[in-house]
Design brief:
mainly alpha; two-stranded antiparallel sheet; two-stranded antiparallel ribbon; globular; 14 helices; single chain
């Protein structure tokens, strides 16, 4: 240890080193944050390069391309021709687009609540400690995996057809059925039932949320004399509001993007009498049926704005009914 002399000539020990401030980074950590970063960071970015390229080429690029095409007339057979806002003005006078919006809103705001009610009901039953819970959870989750496939849509069309299983069951009770998928008053209802049948994914999420509610809440309520219904509305439902909110947003966005079921059941035309003409189906028809890619791109951006607006409204009103308990 080095020593120094004071003015009187006596030896004075050097002061102890100043301890590092708790908010001050150690030298090694400061070097780690220098511009350019250590070699480990550069290697990490090197491994992420394929993802960045794919993101730019297959996501950001097509998004910006569709935005440009929405202001053009583009038929795939000749270069795009700039139109400005003509495609968006045409939407205001397109009766089939208005019909598709009405059908889509009915489909979303009827099927999603039914789907979530079924999912919550089954989650409550499975939460009672059923034997073979993993098996039932897997079985009930299967519809969410299969319902978007072409095969299930074809099967659904057969079930609700003139000679389908539903009419055979009605004939057993002496009731004459109709071709449900070919009747303008019932065709959309078959799509609603098909979407409601895909309750598996929200059910699993509800079940996970139910497992997180402390049992002590129910025990205290039971001691106070609260019945099953009161415990559900005053404990289970408030504690599940974050899960309900998450499922509502997720399933609503998925319902607005539904396409395969309507395409297969209606034969790709949205019939009968445009009763199943979902917005995505009409978008596909204008883009790949009429080769009007500019108009279809404008429709896609309107759909994006519509979903974003409704999602924003959900988040805005969530403050009034979603309970985040500490």
């Amino acid at each position: 240890m080095s020593k120094r002399l004071d003015q009187a000539g006596t030896t004075v020990a050097p002061p102890p080193p100043r301890p590092a401030s708790p908010t001050e980074d150690p030298p090694r950590r400061r070097r780690f944050l220098r511009p350019g970063g250590p070699p480990q960071d550069r290697i990490g970015y090197l491994f992420l390069t394929p993802w960045f390229i794919g993101m730019a080429a297959f996501t950001i690029g097509p998004i910006l391309g569709s935005l440009y095409l929405s202001f053009t007339e583009y038929t795939l057979l000749k270069p795009p021709e700039w139109l400005g806002l003509d495609n968006y003005r045409e939407m205001l006078e397109d009766p089939r687009l208005h019909k598709s919006l009405l059908v889509t809103f009915l489909y979303v705001f009827v099927s999603v609540p039914i789907q979530l009610i079924l999912a919550l009901g089954l989650a409550l039953l499975l939460n009672r400690g059923v034997r073979g819970l993993a098996f039932y959870r897997s079985v009930y989750y299967l519809p969410s995996l299969l319902a978007g496939s072409v095969s299930i849509a074809i099967l659904w069309r057969q079930i609700f057809g003139q000679e389908g299983l539903v009419n055979q069951l009605l004939a057993f009770f002496g009731v004459e059925g109709v071709s449900w998928v070919a009747h303008p008053d019932f065709a959309l209802g078959t799509l609603v039932l098909l979407n409601a049948w895909t309750f598996g994914a929200p059910m699993v999420i509800f079940l996970a949320g139910l497992r997180q509610i402390p049992v002590s809440y129910y025990e205290a309520a039971q001691v106070d004399g609260a019945g099953t219904v009161n415990r559900f509305f005053h404990i289970t439902l408030p504690m599940l509001t974050p899960i309900i909110f998450f499922n509502v947003v997720l399933q609503m966005i998925g319902a607005f993007q539904s396409f395969t079921q309507a395409f297969v059941i209606s034969g790709g035309r949205g019939g009968p009498s445009d009763a199943t003409l979902l917005y995505t189906l009409y978008l596909y028809e204008r883009g790949f049926g009429s080769f009007d890619m500019g108009y279809a791109s404008a429709m896609a951006w309107i759909l994006l704005a519509l979903i974003a607006a409704l999602t924003g409204l959900n988040f805005l009103f969530a403050k009034r009914w979603v309970f985040y308990g500490n």
